[in-house]
Structures
1.
Amino acid sequence: MSERGGRPAARDDMERRRFGPIARDVAVIGQGTWEIESRDRDSVIAALRRGLDLGMTHIDTAELYGSGDAEEIVAEAIAGRRGEVSLVSKVLPQNASRSGTIAACAKSLARLKTDHLDCYLLHWRGRHPLRDTIAAFEQLQEEGKILSWGVSNFDVQDLEEAWKIAGEGRVACNQVLYHLLDRSIEHAVIPWCEAHGVAVVGYSPFGHGRFPGPETAGGRVLQQIASAHHATPRQVALRFLVRRPGLFTIPKASSPTHTADNAGAGTLRLADADLARIDEAFPLGRRPRGLSAL
Ligand SMILES: NC(=O)c1ccc[n+]([C@@H]2O[C@H](COP(=O)([O-])OP(=O)(O)OC[C@H]3O[C@@H](n4cnc5c(N)ncnc54)[C@H](OP(=O)(O)O)[C@@H]3O)[C@@H](O)[C@H]2O)c1
């Protein structure tokens, strides 16, 4: 049953949980920033701030997004509130040599107007040896410029390689595609991460604009469950995506109304029967050959 019916939470109501090996707990429902630079700037900044007010303090950005413009918008949104935020950015694979990663991080920190990131990720694997990227991450962490580091779009073989290089307890998270119409990571990536204490941050939780509408069978199931909890279908979907203890999600919204809707998932509780209905309406499907790099 839902505790607050999926209503937008107050800041302290947002569920927070252990984020991989990191001591500080992180909000289960965070905020994405891909393509925010293409939307109305005032609305986006108001949306991010509303999210912070409602406890969505995990903000995900990247040097890729708007070629750095998204990081600058995030800086404006979190000005004066840096201490509240678990701030995550990502290095592009083409920049992820040892010296390139150090340089890219310095540029992200400058755009974000902060002296440290809470977590710094390799956006996806590229041509630079993983060992070099990890050496740079470890150096940045020793220097206090990042508090932790992780990876993104890593399949199990990549995770194994990172684990062999860095050792247990070093990879904070793996940020991967995860929404109701693509549950591929449930086959092997989530189990591997759970076994190794790595947080799984699901991106594009609404399928990057492919959210099941009310005219679909799955959409009707979401609506029925939402109605029973005085919640919305998107809140139900987000809660399903964080139903296991190591899972986090980072929906992107460009308006405070959308952000507040998404924040409501942070207090929603679904019954096992609800989870089973969603599982049936959006079947896992067969195991794919590998994760696509996105
Ligand atoms: N590591 C990676 O390779 C990777 C790849 C993709 C994404 N990401 C991260 O994950 C974040 C989220 O993924 P995403 O941006 O692809 O898409 P998403 O979160 O799945 O969907 C965003 C879309 O949903 C809409 N939306 C959000 N909340 C809504 C609500 N309550 N009601 C109605 N519509 C709503 C947004 O509209 P409005 O904008 O109009 O509010 C936008 O069109 C990204 O922003 C990025 O930070 C990471």
Note: Residues 32-34, 60, 123, 152-153, 175, 203-209, 234, 250-255, 258, 261-262, 294 surround NAP (CB under 6 Å).
2.
Amino acid sequence: MNDAKRLLGFYAHPDDEILSPGGTVAKYAQAGAQIEWVCATRGEAGEIADPALATPENLGQVREKEMLCSAQTLGIRRVHFLGYRDSGMAGTADNQHPQAYVNSDPEEVTPRLVKIIRCFRPQVALTFEPWGGYGHPDHITIHKHTHLALQAAADPGYHPELGEAWQISRLFYPLLRHAFFYALRDKMAARGLDVSFFDQLEERRKNGWPDGKYHCVIDVRDSFDRKWAAFQCHATQFGPDNIFRQLPKAEMAELLTREYFALAWPEPEPGLLWEDLFAGLK
Ligand SMILES: [Zn+2]
């Protein structure tokens, strides 16, 4: 039996792996953990920061490469692309596309995820919190499918031909806290930069996961360089105008020294606070 630490991320787009869990992923990979990642789409509806990098027709292929560059940089050993189409931001025409991930049938997605879970047998899984950080339809969809699949994977009666039942030990929601955005805004304002992007912060704070509700904090100072290098892989998404590229690397490092995780399953004991996603696991 493989007794390595195994971590499986369930995400929607190339680049979802960076901001909230990237330092942690790099840290565990460097310490010898095995890490695999589900990416439901290839981010076909994303930005094209520079027309020299991609066209709307080949953006999915370009972003697949960007994801693989990021995975290699962080130490993710395998990315499972599910091949659905990026559904775009809420309320856009991309939502209606028949192949859009938001329109996928859970009856089709669940067994595919179950197969991955039963084959890899992770002790710890990661996915978005219920609002997906900012309400992106694909983030919300992968959140729902992750819960369905983890439950189904543990049920020996569910499609036994997909592998032996596997019960994970913990599911976490990596958080990009609102406090991070306020701090980023303040640092940018101090430099006289445009901070109009942050006008929607209150809305985000109202709908999003509460900043104070976390159960594990990981110090990622030592892996920030890898996280930052992985971020650079996603060139189509993070052009020179992107808000995460306005400050020098050293200042961004100061804002991102810790990563925060809420324990989604099992139900956390009051006051629980770990410094390791695998704390106490055999
Ligand atoms: Zn995303």
Note: The chain is about 35% helix and 15% strand.
